[in-house]
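General statements about sequence and structure are easier to judge against a single worked case. For one protein, we set the task of working out the structure tokens from the amino acid sequence alone. The sequence in question and its structure tokens are set out directly beneath this paragraph.
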Amino acid sequence: MKSIRKSIALILCFALLISSLVISLNVSAVAMYTRHGYINDSAVNIRNGAGTSNDSLGKLNSNTKVLVNGVGFDSNGARWYSLTAYTSSGNIVGFVHSDYVTVTGSDKSYEATIVKEATIRSAPGTWNDDVVKLPIGTKVTVIGTEDDRDGDMWYHVTFIYGGETMTGYAYETYVEILAEYVHDPAFEKALNDQGFPESYKPYLRNLHALHPNWQFKADHLEMTFEEAVKGESGFGRSAVSPSRPDAWKSMAKDCYDWSSNSYKTVDSGGWVQASESVIRYYLDPRNFLGSTSVFQFISMEYDEKLHTKERVEAAIAGTFLAKDFPEKPKESDEETEESKATYETYTDVLIAAAKDSGVSPVALASMILVEQGNSGGGKCISGNYPGYEGYYNFYNIRAYRSGNYNAIQYGLLYAKGGDGTRKTYYRPWNNRVDSIIGGAVWYAEKYLNCGQDTLYYKKFNVVSKPYFSHEYMTNVEGASSEASKTASGYKAIMDAGLIFNIPVYKDMSAKAAPYPTKTGNNNCYLSSLTVTGQKLTPTFDKYVNEYEFIVSSSVTEITVNATASYSGANVEGTGKRTLKYGSNIITVTVTSTSGIKNDYNILVFRETPPEVEFQFNLTGYTADGSIVKGIKPKTNEQTLIANFGIAGGSAKIIKFDKTSTYIGTGDVIELYDNEGKLRHSYTLSVENDLSGDGKFSVIDIAKLQLHIILAENLSVAAQKSADLSGDGKISLVDLSLIQRKLLGIE
């Protein structure tokens, strides 16, 4: 207790010392807490540091919501809040004088979304351990903020990953706080009139709250979501990088080489087929309705008013496209008719390509950056690839493996115009200008003008027949990746009336497809499947899921044996299985280490016995009306039923004395035909068994004595058992006979 008090005292002293110092801070001085609040005055400056000497980042309106991250002090000792302000044009991080902020509390969490692929860390700072990497569109909950040692802010977030709740820290620029939506009747009517499913509306409401001028159009497709998943799962249509985890790679038929235990490649660079769960995630539009990821649904048509030179430059800032254009004219060059058509920058070329093709220059730039990388290191634009020196293919058009050509060779062969005689789209592309402009014209003709007018439709052709063909890229993450680059080109006009065409499939589930797990592998197959003593049809194959065979009516059970292809997978449904007459479906389920389930079904048909007319034939017993007599003491149920000789039916025993294992006097046997109809019911009479326990003892003699002296009446069945004389009456003669029988006297 003393140590605790001492610690508290030290903390208080330290706080007093800090408050007495005159300090100037540009970052949070008091760390690691959050408070929610709002701006309480109009036109309040938010600055890039604590103090009016720092630059203004903009002005905040009254009632603007803020998240206070820390406290700073200016050179005069005035208190400033380090905060995030949520404005209609986006989030602003900076400092506001504490007098203009009303703090309301700290117990509220905020829903948010990942807007750039984010590495979640165990603590604030890139030097801390990785927890997991979250893709664009992942939903998280912000529960606080903390600064790293450099003063950079990180969000403390929770999220669902692989079915588990996890926590960690995400760098603030990678996270977008979801805005508070105020019910807008006109917007709700627009959503309803267009037929947006309920599952879309929460995401669209948030986008509307962030960007009220944006318009969302429901693009109702002809196919179901399941049909789209099946179509995009065809081998070679949707691929992932070899660096992706095994859980993202398909082991379906034609996708895996079992002889070498390796994934089959679908494109140069080792790209392999994506698993179905990955395809589901990237195909589901609801996973990409964030303020950045939604740009995969914006039209790629050129709009001269929107796509200005300044906005294109903003889109390519920090990339090789922002550097000097290698083919710009030198200052010493004399101006000629030919040089008038030259370009100073990549931006000039992109805008020229947009005007010629009708494709947005921002979309063209994002395509180039995705294909060639931000640094421009792609081999198709190096100009010095062996055998194809001097040729360029900026969009990697037809850059895929074909015959004896690798992807780069085939792409540059197209740029060359084959043998040089093909002149379409300004080929041969022996300079950068012709490649960029000609490729844009090619793209417009092949995609934009065919209805594939968004990044989403460019990757997933679900709008133009034949579906699932004519797709620009195999990379299943392609549309999502390009969306981020496209969004950066619209930063300056985020409040304009941008239009987004959102795909809506038929029969969509109530929830969006979950983010695929990254643990384990997708080996959900068997290496063997047998049934003891039986032959499966067809012969077992790990990719065949349906089998069958027939057994005779006498076979009542079978034994199923199965071995998983991967030892870590779980197998259920093996062992002994009971069969009924007719069809029996036996299911063996394999669950991969990534959680994928695969069912193998065996249809077993058990023949029914030939139809027999109901009858029975007593052996050793006689029927006396509704009573069957002549049953020996200590007879069990199986012996009794066998002696009834039942054909075309079955029997049921109803016990009088449920504690006895023998058939007793007073028990009832019911006889049924094969259709379950009750045909006969008999009360059973066991010789000398008057007590009903199925045995012969002194108890039975006592029962007979009591009956004779009228102290107790025997049942009709018991009287049949006691009539040893056979005269149809119970008398002292029967008592004498039963006593002699018990004593063994003939």
